[in-house]
UniProtKB/TrEMBL annotation:
It is a multi-pass membrane protein. Gene3D superfamilies: MFS general substrate transporter like domains (1.20.1250.20), Multidrug resistance protein D (1.20.1720.10). It comes from Kitasatospora arboriphila. Its main location: membrane. The chain crosses the membrane at residues 17-37, 57-74, 86-104, 110-131, 143-165, 171-194, 206-225, 237-256, 277-300, 306-329, 341-357, 377-397, 418-436, 456-476. Residues 488-504 have a biased composition (Low complexity). It comes from the Bacteria. It is found in: Cell membrane. Residues 483-504 are annotated as: Disordered. The lineage of its organism: Bacteria, Bacillati, Actinomycetota, Actinomycetes, Kitasatosporales. Residues 19-480 form the Major facilitator superfamily (MFS) profile domain. Keywords: Antibiotic resistance, Cell membrane, Membrane, Transmembrane, Transmembrane helix, Transport. InterPro entries: EmrB-like (IPR004638), MFS (IPR011701), MFS_dom (IPR020846), MFS_trans_sf (IPR036259). This is MFS transporter.
Length: 504
């Protein structure tokens, strides 16, 4: 490779901010699609005749495919080029959304949601990898990851808002159709703006198929087990079997990856204390945050009588707080203070928001009970997501950023599944215990029991965020260095990776 070509590769891309817009739109679509269908689910169930026992598959099919295939999706991007997998992921997501929108039978909708999750597993790691390799200047990287972190944290709330609007004023099918123009537009822009990084056939390493089976199979079973726990309970034989076999597969996966020449997940990526601490912090934070979305959605609509649209709009302050915190505060401080000084206070702020909600009552006003808690959690999550996502790929060799990106995405996905299942089970159990000694036929008493369950589960969520703060304090020790590059790796790693790239 000529010196001039090497210099060209290292030159700053003048279209990088446009590329950020494309990557951010794709990330937003992925995150909001995890929740946008939630509010539309009752309408879709009635329209397609989905039974109560099967309705959860509209949600579970997406999370299963997405969470189970993330490791494979991330590595495919490393082996065949992030731009290529990003484009395939976008177009495939659009196709899957069209199938789901036109569904006439339950199985069509279930299959479309699984297909969305599969293409999302290609798309999400590629998006984070492209962001990492596009922005290498420390200050620019901080701004870019601030935007990305804001969308990662606030996208789920935006999904609830959009789901309410589309369902109430159009049709539940538009919760799927809306992805089509977004995905196609983003794909066209990505084709024009993103640098080509296709890996030549002669330089591709062999895909670790046994590792893919073990790693993806383990994640899939864990996500399935936690999802099924919502309806079956944690002591159900299928739930316990899925969780135990999933953990066993991941254990064997680690042993296998230590011995293979071309690992699906190079273990040195996971063993880095900053990357590991960031992933754990995000995973635990998402457990609390998704639990909050679940409780507040029911609290607003069932207890307070809000319409779906108003329930969605009630999350706007938290979304705004995440955006301000990630882009305005964390992005400016990330190059000046240690990452721990952002992540730990962020988790403590989130725990404070949960503590506030433990005092909720049936007649608690939104402005004095829910709003302050949303703002505390929003400002806290912005401080957590932004530096954690940056740490996910910091210092990783260019040919391994997909695998590193898959780690943080897996933490988010598994954390979300566990959060919904665990906290929902705790809330339901607390409500049942409280109502057992009272007149459950009284509507007011019933609402009081539901709010009691939410408060108990929120207390557990607060504890989880406090534990996350302790782990982040002990594990994350990254300090910004002057002129720190975003995804720089050791020279040997770069030398290995560079010949694999082709000029656009």
């Amino acid at each position: 490779m000529s010196l001039q070509h090497a210099q060209d590769e290292q030159a700053v891309d003048p279209r990088r901010w446009w590329a950020l817009a494309v990557i951010a739109i794709a990330q937003l679509m992925i995150v909001l699609d995890a929740t946008i269908v939630n509010i539309a689910l009752p309408s879709a169930q009635k329209d397609l005749g989905i039974s109560d026992g099967n309705r959860q598959w509209v949600i579970t099919a997406y999370t299963l495919a997405f969470g189970g295939l993330l490791l494979l999706g991330g590595r495919i991007g490393d082996l065949f080029g992030r731009k290529r997998t990003f484009l395939i992921g976008l177009l495939g997501f659009a196709l899957a959304s069209a199938i789901g929108g036109f569904a006439t039978e339950p199985w069509m909708l279930f299959g479309a949601r699984a297909l969305q999750g599969a293409f999302g597993a290609l798309l999400a790691p590629s998006a984070l990898s492209l962001l990492s390799t596009t922005f290498t200047d420390a200050k620019e990287r901080a701004t870019a990851f601030g935007v990305f972190g804001a969308l990662a944290g606030g996208g789920a709330a935006i999904g609830l808002i959009m789901g309410g609007l589309l369902t109430e004023y159009l049709n539940w099918r538009w919760c799927l159709f809306v992805n089509i123009p977004i995905a196609i537009g983003a794909a066209l822009a990505a084709y024009a703006l993103l640098k080509r990084d296709h890996v030549a056939k002669g330089h591709r390493v062999r895909l670790d198929l046994p590792g893919a089976f073990l790693g993806c199979g383990g994640l899939l079973l864990i996500v399935f087990g936690t999802s099924e726990a919502v309806s079956r309970g944690w002591v159900d034989w299928l739930v316990l079997t899925s969780l135990c076999v999933g953990v066993a597969l991941l254990f064997v996966f680690v042993l296998f990856e230590r011995r293979t020449d071309h690992p699906l997940l190079p273990l040195h990526i996971v063993s880095d204390r900053n990357r590991g601490g960031g992933a754990i912090a995000v995973g635990l934070a998402v457990i609390g945050m998704f639990g909050l979305f679940l409780f507040l959605t029911y609290y607003m609509q069932v207890v307070k009588g809000f319409s779906p649209v108003m329930a969605g709009v009630s999350f706007l302050p938290m979304t705004a707080a995440i955006v301000i915190s990630a882009t305005g505060i964390a992005a400016n401080l990330m190059t000046r203070v240690p990452s721990r000084a952002l992540v730990v206070p962020g988790l403590l702020l989130g725990a404070g928001g949960m503590a506030w909600l433990t005092q909720m009552k049936v007649d608690s006003p939104y402005a004095t009970m829910v709003l302050p808690a949303e703002l505390l959690l929003g400002f806290g999550m912005g401080l957590v997501f932004m530096p954690s996502l940056s740490l996910a790929t910091l210092g990783v060799a260019p040919n391994e950023t997909g695998a590193a990106s898959a780690i943080i995405n897996s933490a988010q996905q598994v954390g979300g599944s566990i959060g919904v299942a665990l906290l929902n089970t705790i809330a339901a159990s607390a409500t049942a215990t409280w109502l057992a000694t009272r007149n459950a036929a009284d509507p007011l008493v019933l609402k009081q029991g539901q709010v009691h369950g939410y408060a108990i589960a929120t207390t557990v969520a607060m504890g989880i965020l406090l534990v996350a703060a302790v782990i982040a304090f002990l594990m994350i020790d990254h300090k910004p260095a002057p002129g720190e590059a975003g995804s720089t790796a050791a020279e040997p790693a770069q030398a290995t990776a560079r010949p694999a790239a082709e000029p656009r």
